[in-house]
Automatic annotation (TrEMBL):
<dbReference type="GO" id="GO:0005886">
    <property type="term" value="C:plasma membrane"/>
</dbReference>
<dbReference type="GO" id="GO:1903805">
    <property type="term" value="P:L-valine import across plasma membrane"/>
</dbReference>
<protein>
    <submittedName>
        <fullName>ABC transporter ATP-binding protein</fullName>
    </submittedName>
</protein>
<dbReference type="InterPro" id="IPR003439">
    <property type="entry name" value="ABC_transporter-like_ATP-bd"/>
</dbReference>
<dbReference type="InterPro" id="IPR017871">
    <property type="entry name" value="ABC_transporter-like_CS"/>
</dbReference>
<dbReference type="GO" id="GO:0015188">
    <property type="term" value="F:L-isoleucine transmembrane transporter activity"/>
</dbReference>
<dbReference type="GO" id="GO:0015192">
    <property type="term" value="F:L-phenylalanine transmembrane transporter activity"/>
</dbReference>
<feature type="domain" description="ABC transporter">
    <location>
        <begin position="6"/>
        <end position="253"/>
    </location>
</feature>
<dbReference type="InterPro" id="IPR032823">
    <property type="entry name" value="BCA_ABC_TP_C"/>
</dbReference>
<dbReference type="GO" id="GO:0016887">
    <property type="term" value="F:ATP hydrolysis activity"/>
</dbReference>
<dbReference type="InterPro" id="IPR027417">
    <property type="entry name" value="P-loop_NTPase"/>
</dbReference>
<dbReference type="Pfam" id="PF00005">
    <property type="entry name" value="ABC_tran"/>
</dbReference>
<dbReference type="GO" id="GO:0005524">
    <property type="term" value="F:ATP binding"/>
</dbReference>
<keyword id="KW-0813">Transport</keyword>
<keyword id="KW-0067">ATP-binding</keyword>
<dbReference type="GO" id="GO:0042941">
    <property type="term" value="P:D-alanine transmembrane transport"/>
</dbReference>
<dbReference type="InterPro" id="IPR003593">
    <property type="entry name" value="AAA+_ATPase"/>
</dbReference>
Amino acid sequence: MTENLLSISGASKRFGGLQALSGVDLRIARGQIYGLIGPNGAGKTTFFNVITGLYQPDGGSFELNGRAYSPSAPHLVARAGIARTFQNIRLFGEMTVLENVMVGRHVRTHQGVLGAILRHRAARAEEAAIRKRAQELLDFVGIGQFAARTARHLSYGDQRRLEIARALATDPVLLALDEPAAGMNATEKLGLRELLLKIRANGQTILLIEHDVKLVMGLCDRITVLDYGKPIAEGTPAEVQKNPAVIEAYLGAGGHA
Ligand SMILES: Nc1ncnc2c1ncn2[C@@H]1O[C@H](COP(=O)(O)OP(=O)(O)OP(=O)(O)O)[C@@H](O)[C@H]1O
């Protein structure tokens, strides 16, 4: 087993004339909460999209859990063990809360969604197990009492929790969260912080993009700062916070946050 859960070297992505990522290296040790921050347009979402197979990289090598993986399609990345959430919540709004998590779980099971719909005998047994696990995950993220509710009727903060439960349902080795605190009020942010600490305490590795610098600094074990598609700093929150290049990127004349 390698020490690093995720090792990325030289990730690059160009959109026409814009070099959105150039040679980004990132190493995440097991069990860490790792933060990826940077001013607007720095390339954070592009990086997420590249490592999760939504965008084809122009270059780079990608290793997860000691094995090379090719981020060529989202379902292959999910199978390799990365689950992600999106900046804009993407739930099945008309399905129940429980069903939303069950959909995530089907990535890891044999029958798949079709089998579950056709309700063969084996599928029925598997479906019962999926249902049980989905309820456990809802309890874990703190919304178990809303299992039968239609997803779109959940509060904003609870929809974010549901997204996280759905991602955890795939048994990921890496949980990648794209701005989970976006649009949250202060109380919801505190709740999110507690939840992420609880997830890490279970041994789960987390990669986090987040605009709320206070949340990131108080939560992450290590941080990479991107600016104009390049890493400009890497280290603990305390190291990153006093790095002159980071201060310049956020506040300096060239700052574009
Ligand atoms: N599909 C695309 N086509 C063309 N340009 C893109 C595309 N996606 C992103 N970009 C450009 O790449 C650069 C990086 O954008 P990206 O969204 O990755 O930054 P970000 O750090 O996530 O920003 P934000 O904090 O605002 O979400 C920006 O200049 C953006 O306009």
